Amino acid sequence: MFKVAVIGGSGLLGRALVDELTRQTGWQIVATAFSRPSPRRVALDIRDAEAVGHFIEQTAPDAVVIAAAERRPDVCEHNPALARALNVDAVRSLAAAANRCGAWTLSISTDYVFDGSHPPYRHDSAPAPLNAYGRSKLEGERALGETAARGCVLRLPLLYGPIVDWSESAVTSLVPAIAASAAPDGRAATMDAWAIRYPTFTPDVACVIRQMLERHACGETISGIVQWSGDEPMTKYEIAVHLAEALQLDAHLAPQHTPTDATPRPHNCHLASSRLEALGIGRRTPFDTAIREVLAAFPWRGDSPSA
Ligand SMILES: NC(=O)c1ccc[n+]([C@@H]2O[C@H](COP(=O)([O-])OP(=O)(O)OC[C@H]3O[C@@H](n4cnc5c(N)ncnc54)[C@H](OP(=O)(O)O)[C@@H]3O)[C@@H](O)[C@H]2O)c1
Prior knowledge:
With about 300 residues, the protein is of the alpha/beta class.
């Protein structure tokens, strides 16, 4: 039995990953959560190194996937201690515990380790994060490299996929403003038309991770840094146009051609996925297909609780 521990199985990416991996025959998946444990998700605070050690020892996995993190740039900016505890120190204690049982550790990182001025970025391009989130994730990558006897970092860009709340993804979080702009008395919604993003579908990432785990299971372990990205460049304004079309809303959207965020964000961090592509790993669902799937499973109901 090939055993995988998914740390952060309650998050946007973690849920897609658990869904993908539980379909594998002969695999056992043990998922953890923090504020959202359930009968299928063990409660674990990854800031507690002793609890982490105990969980990994009890589970004895062949592979540990770290999808738990503090991924909100504004929260990281205002609470760097929390960012460090989750994005750096916890990676170190998980990797150390994984070493003790001989497990491979796959840690998820971000395109925000780059400054966005010279895309595309290869896995070995020089990182230069612009904000506290990017800095903490880069430190987390280094912590994994220093600690894991067998480890790999997977960098990803803006994610979207099946949600339980509109705010879970920076793609779906645009929906309430788009819908409000389409109301009879609605004012135009201003959307960033400056930063170029590559929205990437979490079930596609889950497929990539499953393929990487399969390599490990058959002795062809991938190590170092790899990257995966969707291939459709879009600003948030363009994402909003696609969302409005999918929702059949007559939205009033206004592009803003200068940066809109309080926290500094990179302009274009396009990640080259060539290392994984060369291994025959990957899947890309077109944005318009994937976003319709997401919206069909979590329909916009105006002022209903899901709004
Ligand atoms: N979302 C994006 O657009 C994006 C883009 C690039 C890279 N990434 C990276 O992808 C990974 C997954 O991100 P995501 O979007 O799936 O994040 P998410 O939806 O915010 O999920 C975060 C996960 O971390 C868990 N967690 C939070 N605090 C914890 C703690 N103290 N102890 C244990 N677990 C804790 C949460 O558990 P509970 O929910 O149970 O509290 C949840 O499962 C992260 O490494 C992130 O940096 C994300």
